[in-house]
Amino acid sequence: MRRAVTGIDRGRSVFTDTGVVPATEADLYPGATYWLVWGTEDGLPIVGPDAEPVHRPFFPAPGGTRAIAVRFAPGIEAGSGAGGDTDSEVLAAMRADAEAKFPGLFDAHAADPTDPAFHTTDTVDYAFVAEGEIVLKVDGGVEEILRPGSFVVQRGTRHAWENRSTEPALAIFVIVGAERR
């Protein structure tokens, strides 16, 4: 995953940063790869020479943004972790690993204790499926199969992602911190 960042130098548009975005994996989400591409401070985003990427906390507060790419491994629900047969000590270590790599993931990520793949965030998420096939599940067993070229506007609702296919799926997310009413 590559990124090119622009800026202004002496009144002219320039590239201030180009290169590879490091991939991050967490033991709690086996086979999933995350690229934390960019983020802005909470509140009113700024542009200018002092704008640096913000990746923490994982989910922004109102007005903050995050741009993230996620490659979901085949046959694994996002947020389902290692499965139900993992002992509590191992699961705690896996959760600590995920929190270290994605600070704030569990503070703003209200997981459902009856189904850990389901979660709710105080964000508006714009998701674009770039590769593969992914299922978006909402309450009542309702789901939508999303293929390349599909957009999702996820507005702070309880949901879960699942890749039931035999191939990886790549989704690009722009996450905007929101106020719940």
Layout of strands and helices, then pairs:
Blueprint: E1 2-9, E2 12-20, E3 23-24, E4 33-40, E5 65-72, E6 76-77, H1 88-101, H2 105-108, E7 110-112, E8 115-120, E9 123-131, E10 134-137, E11 143-146, E12 151-155, E13 160-163, E14 169-177
Would you kindly provide a written description of the structure presented here, covering whatever features stand out?
- The protein has 181 residues and is mainly β.
- Strands 3-4-5-14-9-12 form a six-stranded antiparallel beta sheet, with no helix packed on it.
- The longest helix has 14 residues, at 88-101.
- The radius of gyration is 17 Å and the shape is globular.
- The chain starts with a strand and ends with a strand.
- The protein contains two helices and 14 strands.
Task: Name some characteristics of this structure.
181 residues; 2 helices; mainly beta; single chain; 45% strand
Distance between the termini: 36 Å
Structural class: mainly beta
Helix content: under 10%
Number of strands: 14
| Largest sheet: spatial strand order | 3-4-5-14-9-12
Roughly how many Å is the radius of gyration? 17 Å
Report mean pLDDT, rounded to a whole number: 88
Low-confidence stretches are: none
- SS field, number of helical segments: 2
Summarize the structure.
The chain has helices spanning 88-101, 105-108, and strands spanning 2-9, 12-20, 23-24, 33-40, 65-72, 76-77, 110-112, 115-120, 123-131, 134-137, 143-146, 151-155, 160-163, 169-177.
